[in-house]
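Exercise 7. Predict the joint structure of the components listed below.
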Amino acid sequence: MSADLAQLFEQYYASLVRMLYRRTGDRDRAEDLAQETFARAVAAPPNNPRPWLFAVALNLVREDGRRAVTRGRRLELLRAEHDEPASGPDAELERREDGARVRAALATLNERDREALLLKAEGFDYEEIAATLGLAKGAIGTTLARARRRLVEAYRAQERGTNQDRGKNVAS
Amino acid sequence: MSHLDEGTLHALLDGELETTEVAEIQAHLGSCSACGLRLREAKEFLGEADRMIAEVDVGPGLRPPVLPSMAEAAPPPRGEAQVEPPAPRPRPRPRPPLADKQPVVPPELRSEQAVILIPDNESPAERRMRRIRWLGWAAMIAVIVGSATVWAGKFGVHIGGSAGGSAPDTTAPRAVVSPQETSPAERPALTRDTSTLALARSSSRRQAAPADSTVAPRKKPTPAAPAAPEPKPKLAARAPARQDSAPPAESTGTTDSSGRSLSEAPATDSVANEDIADVRARAAEALAQLDREKRRDQAAAATAALDAEKRRRASAVTRPAAGALGARAEPVPTPPAPPTLEQRAQVYLRIGLDEASRQLGGPAHVIEGMSPIFMGLAQGTAVAGADGTRPVVRVVYQDAQGRLILLDQQRIRPGQPAPKGSPLAWTQGDIMMWLNGEANPEVLRTLRPRVR
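Solution:
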């Protein structure tokens, strides 16, 4: 691995894992997929690294990344455990519930909308999103508009459902 | 300026528009309250969506793993992609040598929360080569086993059986073998003759009874040798060896299970081989005949199933092939193949939604309530009023009568004249559109309001 790739790793690893975690909801899997992505970058260093890395990572998710990781080349990650910051159980529970609700709302989007949204959240501009997803740049605004609207609507629908459930529980 | 679409508003909020476009849009927003309302709504959706996505985070503790062997060469990470501030890291230690084959991190590295990436697996090419090598070995073993089986079947040798490969019977031969036979110099001859006997025995099993009468014994039958018990085949197998090694006068006279003299074995074997070849040839011929008859029956059944017209055509085709009169067949004219849908629609390349969006700078327009058969590119020159230097995106539909309906679209370039307004040619935003096809104009006019 060259110094450039090491730099890429330092630069994009966290962002890639975060995007993959939002996409898969599984941190271990997200880290596995990120490593597999970088392993591929070692084999064939990309010219335009950021779209390349994220496109490969999203492809791995699509084609059952778990299988690709376990059967493909493997990079062994040896990492010490980090200490979790102290937070109250209620706050933690609420954070998890919110996260689960957002993930469920994300799951209602179609593949392209979801990926465009996640890439935008990682700071991609329209040109990079278009390059990563193989879309026309002119279509990205519409894609993001639709994705945002659907995400918010799905989230609100879930909130309404949860509130109704709570109301029923209180009434009974 | 027409109303702003949602995509443009989001592009505006994301800062993706050119300055000139922004100025135009702002001018429009100043005068259009509906678009101002939609902009506020878009802003709300954008902010809400960003907040929601930010809620789904990996959580604390995620740091890029350190690559100790190259960390020194790498410049410090750029802050742009790092959402979390880079935590202070201990100076990485040199990577342990791979030759150690130790996948476990040394304790000192673990204590410093370092992370090591070790490529420990073979590459796909290596994995493929390993599979090919395995297949090669398996094929070689299969070939060896197969040839051994064939060889054994041909020469009547039972692998691991009793004819020649089994452990020698230590009791029976001693009863009949003379001291000369036991000398080491004669042992190869013993082995050879044993296998010859095995051939004779296997042949005699296959031979019909009359075959014996046609075989002339090579040697005269000799008086029986002492102590050659009948039920022991191995004892019998030793007998010809004794015959070879001993003077001719001392023939053993041992007989096999059919009562035939063992001295007849070689001659019987050659005859048997000829017979086997003959039988195989006859069997092959019978099988071929059977096959011919079967095909003839099938052809007759197929012909019977044809209707009169097809039968006439088939006989016209097959008659010259029979060649009974030597007449040449008249070539049967084949009807021309019907044009494909692409040919009918004059589409030279099928494309997908992505390519259509790329061509048009946005999603392709469609007819609401109808499912397109396909989408493709047609020559711009084929559409009246279109820019002939560029292709036209053509969405192809088919109505219930099978007539094609074509919705053509082309992006208007700056300075390009818009088409003359007509019910079937109009502009929508910066897209020129035409409705045409095999359906009559009345039908096409009714479809026009459904174009989205």
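Discussion. The domain at 89-171 of chain A is CATH 1.10.10.10 (Arc Repressor Mutant, subunit A).
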